[in-house]
Amino acid sequence: MGSTTIMVSDGLKRTLASMKLYENETYEDIISGLIEDRKLLNQETIEQIEQAKEEAKRGETITLEEIKKKMQK
Length: 73
Known about the structure:
Layout: H1 10-18, H2 27-57, H3 64-72
């Protein structure tokens, strides 16, 4: 596997270092984990949007006013 060097700001490097789950974790490990999390989040978000669309089509919605009334009780 080849490798390359990327430039990041000192602030980002500190942030990445603070995200280490264990002492020997590499920046590549951290970045790979973030990418995987983002992929999952995106897929989960897409599924939630599709679910919400279906609920709206079935009329399973609630207005903001109804939510406000429920919150006041």
